[in-house]
Specification:
Bound molecules: adenosine-5'-triphosphate
Structural class: alpha/beta
Keywords: ATP-binding, Nucleotide-binding, Transport
Mean pLDDT: 88
Distance between the termini: 32 Å
Low-confidence stretches: 297-307
GO molecular function, one term: ATP binding
Family: Belongs to the ABC transporter superfamily.
Pfam families: ABC_tran (PF00005)
CATH architecture of the largest domain: 3-Layer(aba) Sandwich
InterPro entries: AAA+_ATPase (IPR003593), ABC_transporter-like_ATP-bd (IPR003439), P-loop_NTPase (IPR027417)
Radius of gyration: 24 Å
Shape: elongated
Helix content: 25-40%
């Protein structure tokens, strides 16, 4: 279990992480989502002692990472997959890690198989592709069979097969009861992997909720088609209901569910041709949530923080 309490990190005058608190649950994939520069990597680095909080704390099972007797058995982290010795083979890299952390050599072969590195494990790391390096990083993270896994942008630069593999590995690890924490700046990625989302914007938490809840939090819009648009609009008009005319036969209604719209149409003797709830996508929600929190926007303009 990872717990952050009022965690802050300042770099000079910059609040990279600005007082965040959260608790991650075992058995779930928690997505850590936010635009570039929102503080995800800094938070993860503090969790494994690579950076010190300016104030507040981030602990794993109640202790700071450095206080754990066997850190590799506690947390498996892939924060920088490139941090290896290029002249070694993948297998010898894993063997050294195992030997220096009191992990049995049999785990090395096991994680090589688990990560699909079998064919390249005997080759030097300097010849590895990005995908192989990513798999090697994950193999190292799994070596100590830890209950907590932390992956920073694990699918960056991977091909579609690699992306699918990382997703299913994360899900499998959570199904085994582990706490799985995965960062990404892409909602589309997280929506296929995570059960729960923590959304960060400019170092602050802007959402901490199950994916389903985020999906349901948007206002439901319903598309209605009829030849009697004005009769229907009259029948539906009420406080908190907004109706917009899309074209001569189509209305978009917010504030009423499809069932109520159907019932009112029947009472007003309006014939409906279509009644379609418009699903809010996670992407829509994410854009809404982070719209004011983006540091770098497309178009090349740099916008200074305006908080
Ligand atoms: N060592 C550092 N020194 C100074 N500023 C830093 C340092 N590390 C991070 N920052 C700044 O802190 C902020 C948060 O960065 P961080 O890398 O944690 O964000 P992120 O959400 O992981 O983004 P990305 O997806 O781009 O890596 C950014 O504005 C970044 O420029």
């Amino acid at each position: 279990m990872i717990t952050a309490e009022n965690l802050h990190k300042r770099y000079g005058s910059k609040n990279a992480v600005d007082g965040i608190s959260f608790q991650l649950q075992p058995g779930k994939v928690t997505g850590f989502l936010g635009p570039n520069g929102s503080g995800k990597s800094t938070t993860m680095r503090m969790a494994v002692g690579l950076d010190r909080p300016t104030s507040g704390s981030i602990t794993i099972d109640g202790k700071q990472f450095s206080q754990h007797k066997a850190p590799m058995r506690t947390v498996g982290a892939v924060l920088d997959a490139g941090a290896t010795h290029p002249g070694r083979t993948g297998k010898s890299h894993l063997k050294v890690l195992a030997a220096t952390h009191g992990i049995s050599a049999s785990r090395v072969q096991h994680v090589i198989e688990l990560t699909g590195l079998g064919e390249v494990a005997g080759k030097r790391i300097k010849g590895y592709s990005l995908g192989m390096n990513q798999r090697l990083g994950i193999a190292a993270a799994l070596l100590g069979d830890p209950a907590v896994l932390m992956f920073d942008e694990p699918v960056n630069g991977l091909d579609p097969e690699g992306v699918r593999w990382v997703r299913s590995l994360a899900r499998q690890m959570a199904a085994e009861g582990r706490t799985v924490f995965v960062s990404s700046h892409l909602m589309s990625e997280m929506s296929q992997t995570a059960d729960h989302l923590i959304v960060l914007g400019r170092g602050r938490i802007i959402a901490d909720a199950p994916i389903q809840e985020l999906l349901n939090s948007g206002e439901q819009r319903v598309l209605v088609r009829t030849e009697q648009t004005s009769d229907l609009a009259n029948a539906l008009t009420a406080r908190d209901v907004s109706i917009s005319h899309i074209d001569a036969e189509t209305l978009q209604v917010t504030g009423l569910d499809p069932r109520s719209i159907g019932r009112r149409a029947l009472e007003a003797q309006v014939v409906l041709h279509e009644l379609t709830p418009q699903l809010t996508t996670l992407e829509d929600e994410y854009m809404k949530l982070t719209g004011d929190h983006v540091e770098y926007r497309s178009g090349g303009a740099f916008e200074e923080a305006a908080q």
